[in-house]
Specification:
alpha+beta, Rossmann fold, two-stranded parallel sheet, two-stranded antiparallel ribbon
Amino acid sequence: MFQDVQLLGMSVRENIRLGRPDATDAEVQAAAGAAQIHRRITELPDGYDSIVGITALLSGGEAQRISIARALLADTPIVVLDEATAFADPESEAAIQDALSSLVAGRTLLVVAHRLWTVVGADQIAVIDRGRVVERGRHADLLAEGGLYRRLWDAQEWRTRTGSEETGGLVLGPEGGQVSK
């Protein structure tokens, strides 16, 4: 799943069903429910038959939850998320995080993240610098090591406390230099 979800100009039902074309309506709705998007879909003019971009005008977070429903329906053993909450407003981000909880059950989840707080519960965090894994472990252990992860964490905490925001997807190091994009 990419950070910039592209839904097709077809019904919401068909967009979700791309994960498994033979899925029943009940399975599509169950996946949408687990993805925290069922209620929003039922509020659309034509419900699941609403056409994306015409009668289904969705926010970035809502589109991401449709994508999560698609992934749930596909029931793949491995899911890769590339900044899954990057374009979500805070309310949608919370719903996406809840939906991801459903998605990870019984699966391997690989998450690409610049906002480190989104991966604090991960079983394994790999810190990549210039194409090399330079640290690996759990959040608390990486903080205790005091390496690059700790410096990135501290820099993001500083931005959160001061109201600064990331711009252009850059992750800044403690001295303000670009670490990654």
